[in-house]
Structures are given as structure tokens and as C-alpha cells.
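Colleagues,

For the teaching module next term, I've prepared a clean inverse folding example: a structure given as C-alpha cells, and then the sequence designed for it. I'd like students to try predicting residues themselves before seeing the answer, so please don't circulate the second half yet.
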């Protein structure tokens, strides 16, 4: 009896142990191992993305020829007096036909490892650009669309039809087709010159500073690379422990450059002249047309309102950093400087929250994170991510995963190809590519969206899966937020599907996903040690979530400063053509709590001025709207199905088919004024600050 009793006890212990050590789901198991390399002996290649034309690189030439011929047919249909379809239907098919080739070719151009595919894709991209340029000068096509927008279509239309038609017309007029010929040609030249100036400025912004060795204090000279008698400064050493090194890198890397100053000044002036030629008061007015904020005056009001409320909160942040600097340096009069802020943020994490380097990594395997995403999407939308086997020739590399996005009642919503791992020649960026936009087809079926999510993660090893830092987890959720925007949209037109919406709204779904990735209730569902499957401890979880919000006020103030500077550069200032550093000094004094450093010009390395001219505020406003949505619908329960369904139906489903300002106001049932937006973000900062203080006190 005793022997049997001991055996039974041991058996119960083993059963209990198995219950504690939960197993990964099939999705997690797949992503925790390298994608299986398939050896094909019998089946024919299906072509990239299952496109038969792309069984070889030469298929790009066939796609190009086909779309050029189809474009001519659609142009003829649009300008015909016998037209049988709505004008917007024809334009969207034209846009869809071109985008299917252009978007695919642009992705393959940068992602495919084989030169022949890259070159063929680049040729296709150039050809499609030529087609688009010819369309932009096609007066009869423009006049046919303009007549429909101004006088109405011969066919019955909806408000969505009319909105999308207006967007097509605005795109047309970006190139000045509505202007007299001499003025139109001037707009074309300005656009070309702006493109060239932007490329030169971007290139200059990325160049290292090469200076004589004597420029760098001897005590820190060995920290920097050298070439002959020169020191090479390749970037800001923001997290260096040596304060001299941080200061030297800042001052030397951001030294003024006459060439960069001239390029930036010319870029801003040309943009201003372009806007005036097209009938806008400033370039900012042109850039904000059809945006969420609509006018630069509203952006400035939002920035000013937020700035006023941030100032005392940011001053408190800087005061704490100053205390830390004085304690660390032993200098009672030391002051925090602009080169110190990232360093002391890291130090506060280590000192107050006892964060250790890489301590969180084992709890965030790639497979575990994908399982967490899957569980969240199922809870909110009734959607599952299913790992799907690819056919021979379907992917551009052997380490790609393919996800089928399945809805519990609607079935297949679309496909997400996951290009997650770093490899030679692959761009080092986290981003989302639309390969095929969703749209309603004439027979009533839906053209399924196809997207690629690209990350730069380390390859999984035989010793274990790929492990993600908390920042990488945020990036994964962010990019999957873009992908799900595409998957969950159900628009009539591909021109406005998913992320094809206003720039200052496109980041809202992705930033909102970061809120889920920072919520302890969500993280508890998947943060488990990759070897033992032991859940992350409550202490680690609270410290992790708190660490994401340290010095939030001063960091937000920095984003406000950047946004204000961008608006100032693209407002009336551009016409005066003054020195951009003098403008910077004035804006920094008004909007940022730390002073400008003399003989530096960081704006000359601010490459976002090229890609986000007059729209840098977009991330800040997207963050604010996402915060508002989180507080209203998900903060109480991040798994609330009713809130998820409503969010999909009233926000995600529409893409850009409804003006984003209207979408937000309807969803949140309140007018989107600058003060309401600012108050929402300030409330979040204050709430997070209170939680951090409570946590630090509880640990002291």
C-alpha cells in the first residue's frame, strides 16, 4: 500500500507539472522554428505571390505590357460618350491595375535576393512611372473626371463615390494639369527639382563628419574611428556613459554645413512656390488637404495647446535628469543638456526599476509573440492567423512565412507574408507593404488584400527561437497593426483601402496596437520563458510596462518641437528664405525645455523633412487619437469583443473611404478639437506618471 501510495503521489506530481508547463500552439511552434525549406520534385512553380506570370523574372515585362494595354482601354472607356459605368469605378480599376504591378515591383526591387528579379522589377517600376506621368498630362481624361466631380455623374453615386472621385481629382491636380500650359510645365519642373533636392539632402544628412583629430579632446579621441589624421563621427553617442563623449559627438556630428543649408533652403522655397502655383497659401496648406487635421491652423492650435500643458511636466522631467547628472558627475552645478536625455532615461530604468540588460528577452520568443497576437485578434475580431504552406516558387526567399487571416464567419480575409529575418542585401527597416489592395469586384465578391510585413530579426538558431526585446515586440505589434488595417478593411475601392488613407490617420491602428503590447493583461497571455514555459513574473511585468513611459512628458515635448519646426519651415517662413538655423533657434526656445547648442544645426540631418514635409506632426496626432480610442474603448478591457467589433465596423472597415476626421468624431462621439486631443494625451501622461511613482515607491 505504501509503495502504491508513493507511486500515485509521484504520478499526481507529474500530472501537475505537465499542467504548469503549457505547450506552444501550432502557430507559435511554426514561428519558433525556421521556415521549412521545401524541396520540389514534382509540382510546377506557381510564381511569386501565386502569379503565374512571375515564374521567371521575365514575367515583369509581360505584366508591364498587359497593364499598359489595359490602361489605354480604361482611358478610352472613361472619355467615351457611351460610358456604361460610374467614372469612379473606371478610375479605381485603372488605379488598381497600375498599383498591382507598381507595388509588387517596388517590393521585389528591394527584397528579392536575385539580381535578375531586382532589375526586371526596377524596369517595371520605371515603366509604370512613365504611364502615370502620361496620365497626369492627359487633358481629356482629367476633364472627364472634373466634369463628374463638379456636375455629378450620369450614373447614380453614393457619398463614398463622390469622396473618392474628389481624391482622384486632387491627385490629378497635384501635377498642375488644371493650370495654363506654361504654368503646368513650371509645376512639373518644380516637382522634378524638389525630388532632386530631397535626394541630395537625404544623402548629405547620412554622411559622417570627418574632422581633424585636434577637434576631439584627447581623453576621448580613441572612442571614435579614425582615418589618417582625421576622426570620423558617424552618429550621436546618446547612450555613452562618458559625458564628454556624448557632448563631443553631438557638437561635431551636428556641425553646420553650408551645402546642406543651401539644399534645405532651396527645397523649402521650391515647395512654397509649388504650393502657390497650385493655388495654396503655403506648402503646409497643400500637404494637409484631405488630412485629418485639414488645415495647418488647426495643427498649430493643437501644438500650442499641448505645448502649454506639457511645459511644467517636461520641466519636472528635466529637473530629475539634472539631479541624476549632478549625483553621477559629482558636480553640484551640472545641468542636463540635449545630449543627455536618452542616457538618463536608460539610467532611470536601471536604477529605479532595476532593469537588467536583456532580462526580458527569454520571455518573448517570436512564436510566443505571434501566439499573443493571434489570441488578441481572436478576442477582438473573431480572427485567427493560420500558418499556411506555400507552393513552390511562391516566395522570394526560403525564410518567409505565410499567414492566412481567417474570420470565424466571413472566412478568408486575406494573406500576410512575413519576411521577418535579416539577410544580406535586405533593407534594415521594419515596414508594411501592400501587394494587392482589397476592393469590391463587379460580381459582388471581394478582391482579397495581400501584404508583406518586413522586420529585421535575428535568424532562429538550433539552440532556440528568435527572441525579441520589448522594443521589438512593440515594432511587431505596430507593423501587424498596419497589416490588420488592410485585412479588416472592406472598401468598395482599392484606392482607399486599409492604410491608403490620410497620412495623419494611417498610423492610428498601428500605434493603437502598441497600447495592447504595453498592457500587462495582454502580455500575461503570451509572455512565457521559451525553455521552461514559466510565465513572466508580476514584478518583471510591471517594471517592463512602466519603463515604456519614463520621461513621457519631455519626450512628447520633443515631438511637439519637431512638429512645430516642420510646420514653421513649410509656412510663410519659406517665402522669406532665411537661415534655417535661426528659425530653429526661435522655435526651440518656444517649444522645447532645453536650449539650442550654439554652432550646431541638427535640422540639416533631419531627413524626415524630405519624406514628411509639413506632415511630421502626423505621428503625434496619430498617437493622440490612438490614446483617445484606447482610453474610451479598450483601457477597461483590452479583450472586449463588442469594442473590437465596433472599432472594426466604424474605423478599420472604411480605410480612407470616409474622411478620417469624420470617422474619429463619429466613433468617439465627440468633435475632434485641438483642446480635446491635447487633453487626452495629457491625461495619459499623468496617469502613467502616477503609476510609475507608485511602482518606484513600492520598490524602495
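(Answer key — instructors only)
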Amino acid at each position: 500500500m505504501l509503495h502504491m501510495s508513493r507511486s500515485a503521489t509521484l504520478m499526481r506530481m507529474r500530472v501537475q507539472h505537465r499542467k504548469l508547463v503549457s505547450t506552444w500552439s501550432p502557430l507559435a511552434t511554426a514561428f519558433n522554428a525556421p521556415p521549412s525549406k521545401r524541396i520540389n520534385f514534382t509540382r510546377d512553380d506557381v510564381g511569386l505571390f501565386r502569379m503565374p506570370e512571375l515564374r521567371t523574372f521575365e514575367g515583369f515585362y509581360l505584366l508591364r505590357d498587359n497593364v499598359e494595354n489595359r490602361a489605354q482601354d480604361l482611358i478610352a472607356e472613361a472619355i467615351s460618350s457611351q460610358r456604361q459605368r460610374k467614372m469612379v469605378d473606371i478610375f479605381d480599376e485603372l488605379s488598381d491595375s497600375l498599383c498591382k504591378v507598381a507595388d509588387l515591383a517596388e517590393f521585389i526591387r528591394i527584397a528579392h535576393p536575385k539580381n535578375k528579379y531586382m532589375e526586371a522589377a526596377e524596369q517595371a517600376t520605371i515603366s509604370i512611372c512613365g504611364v502615370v506621368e502620361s496620365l497626369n498630362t492627359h487633358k481629356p481624361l482629367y476633364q472627364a473626371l472634373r466634369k463628374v466631380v463638379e456636375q455629378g455623374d450620369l450614373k447614380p453615386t453614393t457619398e463614398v463615390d463622390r469622396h473618392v472621385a474628389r481624391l482622384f481629382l486632387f491627385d490629378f491636380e497635384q501635377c498642375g494639369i488644371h493650370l495654363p500650359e506654361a504654368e503646368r510645365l513650371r509645376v512639373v519642373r518644380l516637382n522634378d527639382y524638389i525630388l532632386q533636392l530631397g535626394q541630395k539632402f537625404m544623402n548629405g544628412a547620412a554622411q559622417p563628419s570627418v574632422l581633424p583629430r585636434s577637434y576631439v579632446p584627447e581623453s576621448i579621441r580613441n572612442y571614435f574611428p579614425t582615418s589618417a589624421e582625421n576622426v570620423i563621427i558617424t552618429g550621436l553617442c546618446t547612450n555613452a556613459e562618458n559625458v564628454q563623449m556624448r557632448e563631443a559627438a553631438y557638437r561635431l556630428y551636428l556641425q553646420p554645413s553650408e551645402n546642406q543649408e543651401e539644399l534645405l533652403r532651396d527645397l523649402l522655397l521650391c515647395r512654397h512656390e509649388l504650393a502657390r502655383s497650385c493655388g495654396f497659401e503655403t506648402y503646409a496648406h497643400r500637404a494637409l488637404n484631405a488630412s485629418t487635421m485639414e488645415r495647418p491652423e488647426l495643427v498649430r492650435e493643437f501644438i500650442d495647446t499641448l505645448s502649454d500643458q506639457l511645459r511644467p511636466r517636461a520641466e519636472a522631467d528635466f529637473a530629475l535628469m539634472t539631479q541624476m547628472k549632478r549625483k553621477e558627475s559629482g558636480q553640484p552645478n551640472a545641468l542636463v543638456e540635449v545630449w543627455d536625455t536618452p542616457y538618463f532615461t536608460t539610467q532611470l530604468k536601471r536604477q529605479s526599476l532595476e532593469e537588467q540588460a536583456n532580462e526580458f528577452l527569454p520571455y518573448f520568443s517570436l512564436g510566443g509573440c505571434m501566439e499573443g497576437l493571434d489570441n488578441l485578434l481572436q478576442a477582438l475580431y473573431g480572427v485567427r492567423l493560420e500558418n499556411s504552406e506555400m507552393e513552390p516558387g511562391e516566395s522570394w526567399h526560403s525564410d518567409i512565412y505565410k499567414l492566412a487571416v481567417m474570420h470565424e464567419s466571413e472566412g478568408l480575409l486575406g494573406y500576410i507574408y512575413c519576411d521577418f529575418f535579416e539577410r544580406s542585401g535586405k533593407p534594415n527597416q521594419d515596414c508594411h507593404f501592400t501587394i494587392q489592395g482589397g476592393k469590391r469586384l463587379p460580381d459582388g465578391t471581394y478582391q482579397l488584400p495581400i501584404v508583406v510585413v518586413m522586420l529585421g530579426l535575428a535568424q532562429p538558431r538550433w539552440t532556440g527561437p528568435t527572441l525579441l526585446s520589448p522594443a521589438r515586440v512593440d515594432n511587431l505589434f505596430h507593423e501587424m497593426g498596419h497589416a490588420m488595417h488592410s485585412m479588416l478593411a472592406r472598401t468598395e475601392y482599392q484606392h482607399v483601402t486599409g492604410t491608403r488613407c490620410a497620412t495623419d490617420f494611417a498610423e492610428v491602428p498601428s500605434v493603437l496596437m502598441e497600447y495592447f503590447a504595453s498592457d500587462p493583461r495582454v502580455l500575461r497571455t503570451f509572455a512565457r520563458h521559451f525553455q521552461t514555459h514559466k510565465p513572466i513574473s508580476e514584478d518583471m511585468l510591471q517594471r517592463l510596462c512602466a519603463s515604456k513611459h519614463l520621461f513621457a512628458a519631455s519626450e512628447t515635448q520633443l515631438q511637439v518641437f519637431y512638429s512645430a519646426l516642420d510646420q514653421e519651415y513649410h509656412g510663410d517662413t519659406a517665402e522669406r528664405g532665411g537661415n534655417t538655423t535661426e528659425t530653429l533657434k526661435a522655435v526651440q526656445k518656444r517649444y522645447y525645455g532645453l536650449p539650442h547648442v550654439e554652432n550646431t544645426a541638427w535640422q540639416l540631418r533631419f531627413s524626415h523633412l524630405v519624406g514628411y514635409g509639413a506632415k511630421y506632426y502626423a505621428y503625434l496626432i496619430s498617437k493622440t487619437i490612438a490614446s483617445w480610442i484606447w482610453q474610451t474603448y479598450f483601457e477597461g478591457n483590452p479583450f472586449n469583443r463588442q469594442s473590437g467589433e465596433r472599432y472594426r465596423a466604424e474605423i478599420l472597415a472604411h480605410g480612407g473611404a470616409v474622411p478620417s476626421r469624420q470617422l474619429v468624431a463619429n466613433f468617439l462621439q465627440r468633435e475632434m478639437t485641438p483642446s480635446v486631443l491635447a487633453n487626452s494625451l495629457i491625461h495619459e501622461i499623468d496617469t502613467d506618471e502616477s503609476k510609475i511613482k507608485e511602482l518606484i515607491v513600492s520598490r524602495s
